[in-house]
Amino acid sequence: MSDSSPAVPVLDVWCELQCPDCRTALDDLRALRARFGDRLEVRLRHFPLDKHRHAFAAAQAAEEAFAQGQGWPYVEAVLGRVEELDRAGEAFLVEVARELGLDAEEFDTALIDGRHILIVDADQAEGKAIGVTGTPTYVIGGERLDGGKSQEGLRERVEEIADRLLAGERA
């Protein structure tokens, strides 16, 4: 089966839902999604850090939200309330699902049965393999941009690369 439409550039965002720097990055991600729409695929990749004890569960919960069709709204809701995640852990993750009208029981079950652990582990392993050390880290067009130290100028850089990739595909 051949698809005549060109492949859309992919922006991988290695992220951790208990990370204040990732919350800061949300504005950039919203702006990128608004600017490029479906001409840029923004993919959440998981990189839970050991120093955040609820990050691994949060990554699994995000995968469940994507499975239920509300991935990005869920990610934004959790990142917007990092302090509550710090305090309440998994109970908070299930609560956010309930607030968004998702199947909270299913979230609870997913966190217990670990159905999304392999995805999270695979993301983390791939991140380590390409040199991700902190979050957020962006990868687009084979270039890695580290947002953990500073977000300054990152969105502009991602836009430049995406524009270049899109221009190349149209040529």
Could you describe the 3D structure shown?
This protein starts with 9 loop residues before the first strand and ends with a helix. Strands 2-1-3-4 form a 4-stranded mixed beta sheet, sandwiched between helices. α1 links the parallel β1 (10-15) and β2 (41-46). By secondary structure, it is of the alpha+beta class. It has helices at 20-36, 55-67, 71-79, 82-88, 90-99, 104-113, 117-129, 154-170; strands spanning 10-15, 41-46, 137-140, 143-146. The chain contains 8 helices and 4 strands. Helices cover 56% and strands 12% of the residues. The chain is globular and about 45 Å long.
Keywords summarizing the entry:
171 residues, four-stranded mixed β-sheet
Set down the secondary structure blueprint.
Elements: E1 10-15, H1 20-36, E2 41-46, H2 55-67, H3 71-79, H4 82-88, H5 90-99, H6 104-113, H7 117-129, E3 137-140, E4 143-146, H8 154-170
- Could you estimate the helical fraction of the residues in percent? 55-70%
Task: Please tell me what the overall shape is.
Answer: globular
Q: Strand arrangement, largest sheet?
A: 2-1-3-4
What string gives the helices and strands in order? EHEHHHHHHEEH
Q: How large is the radius of gyration?
A: 16 Å
Q: Which structural category do the helix and sheet elements fall into?
A: alpha+beta
Quaternary state reads: single chain
Roughly how many Å apart are the termini? 23 Å
Number of helices: 8
Averaged pLDDT, please?
91
Uncertain stretches: none
Number of beta-strand segments: 4
Strand content: 5-15%
* Main beta-sheet strand count, sense and barrel state: 4 strands, mixed
